[in-house]
Predict the structure.
Amino acid sequence: MNYKSILACAFAGMALTACNSDENSMQPTESGETVHMTVTVSRETIQSTRTEFEENAEGGLNCVWSGNDKLYVTDDKGFNKGVLTVAELKDNGANAVFEGNISGIVGNKATLNYYYLGTASESLVVDDTKVYTADYSVQDGKFESLPQKDILSATAEVIISNGKSYVADMTLARRISFARFNLKFAEDMNVNPNFKVTISGKGLNNVAKIDTKDCSATYNAGEVVMENVSATEDIYMVLLPNTLESGFDLKFVVEDGENTYEGICPVGKKITQAKYYRKSLDGGKFGGLEVPMSYANEYTLRYHANFDGADPAYIDDVKHQAAPVEFVYKTYEETGLPVRDGYEFNGWAGSEDAESGDEPGATLTMYEFMNNKVNDVYAIWNKIFNYSVEFDITGADAGQNAPETLTYSGTETEHNFTLPNQTINRDGFEFKGWSETPNASDNAITGSIIVKSDKPQITLYPVWVLKKSVIEVPGAGGDEL
């Protein structure tokens, strides 16, 4: 089969090298003897490392050979020497005898590296002179096939005699290490499903996948991002040996669209080969290293009722997100704050003495550079005034109805009422308008009247003026001139 891949790969202690070639192009180089090699190899100790991402039913690890496995052989400088295939399986696959030719051997001794790359042979990258094992540190930013890959290696000195070489009881150890984590959230943290996890830390190389879900990961040096994650337990990571002399902290950040959480897991020791970082549980079981998660950020919009006697006096709207954080002003009813009788709500303002404020639905944005992560806003109140104009038509002719009472309820400190266009009749009198004084005969009010807060209720009375009678006087008579 032909596999083609472009990977960044490295031996431990070597710089990353990008390669592009086909498996069939792998040809032994250098002059020297071609030797038929036989090597008996076992897998790593079953309890020390992890072969697959899932333990078997007994809680152990499935570390066995198959008949299709291959060993890739290089010298200590990484130059390809040959490929060995399985000739015999032993002990139910725990051991295997590999055979094949190695080339370019000078002398009767050679120090060789042996690599097993699992079932995904595309993880092998070669060119005309060297073979490299993929360390998964830069691999198109994807990890979909990582569960199928199993990187094991060993180095051994072999003795060559009569064109043959034998190595017995070699044990291949994993070049990478695994870690398993469980994110622990407090009971009041309701993480929305399908969140994003970002893992970062000095010395971090990469990550495998989360739980058993199909959550692919993308990553750059020192940071891994996994999208659409639904489980917070069993986060499996692949860790590569690094040059750090001591442990380091891994930082976990979870974003669920509404809130951001973060947690730190200290890695106490430097990352070496063939380790499985996990937590021992009772009964011989294992679990992930626990990572306590807390809110990463806390921005608060504090709504104040802003009047004496309010209980509670304020209520907080809290968001746990990275800045900038947007708050949409609530209606006063939505806050659940106590009602202020006799007043009308007039928006939210940054000062308790403001005359007006922003309407509900407006947006307030809080930024990281702000010194205070609590923003106080105050309800602005306008006093409600109730005005009325009543009509008293005592003395009017029978059968007449007084005009309906005029009313107003609102925040105006005075209100202009339009008076009804209605004549109130009284026998022998002429209706001139209205007056606040009973039995008034002059200064009638017509058209409208302004009512002010110092006298919110008034009563108006008709103003009648006595009708004048015209008396005709007959002529006195006399002689014509």
The mean pLDDT is 77. The chain has four domains: 4-174, 177-295, 299-383, 386-466. Residues 332-335 form the longest helix (4 residues). Helices lie at 332-335.
